[in-house]
Amino acid sequence: MKALKEVKKIWETIAKGENVLDENFDLGFQRKLLDVFHAGSFFFYVVNVRKSMLEYVSPEIKEVIGYEADVTLEDIVSFIHPEDVPYFVSFEAAVRNFFGELSGNSLFSYKVQYDLRFKKSDGSYIRILHQFVIIQHDAEDIKTFAVDTDIDHLKTSGKPQLSFIGLDGSPSYLNVDTEKDLAAEKGFFTKRERQILQALAAGMSSQEISEMLSISKYTVDVHRKNMLKKSEAKSTYEILQKAFNMGWV
Asked: What does the pLDDT look like over 223-240, one tens digit per residue?
């Protein structure tokens, strides 16, 4: 299957340096929360990304799309509406890029969500909201906990949308344009520029930032000028306003 092959190539480029496990994740507890708070019928599953396989699929899949729980990852991808397949591939590439800038426990600070049309066993299509969080990331395995919800009653038309939902106070990135918005909001500044921006937001001066980062004050000021140019801001005050409004800090 071409789409899955493309996505596997994307997954193969995921860095292998992180070795973290979300010790707070409990499948049974998550199941109870889903029953209480989910708006629509749903099923959930655990994906081993590195091995491109499903490790568990809940029996509710039968109720939602009419298939048994012995489906494979290949089956899941084959259910996607042909017109939505390019979105699926570009979304997964954007997810790879997004999490590539995170490390340690920050990998658990985001929920990814996007919608796609799925083919049911009777041949009809429904719109599914696909949501997942990373629960394990190491050299051998990257595992995600995913929930697919029938949102046909909530969204009947329009193109698929991708969002990164911040958890535990992390900023969210909603309705991301995979060709533009993610670069503007997440990769807009370099890692060093984001460090300086966060320091400025904390009220630190250029001298204090230079001492904290062990770089010269001149280097800090050069970064600040570059940041003003990139953001089209006229002052530090204006760039901080944009930073808080756009979730850059």
From this structure: 999 888 887 888 888 888
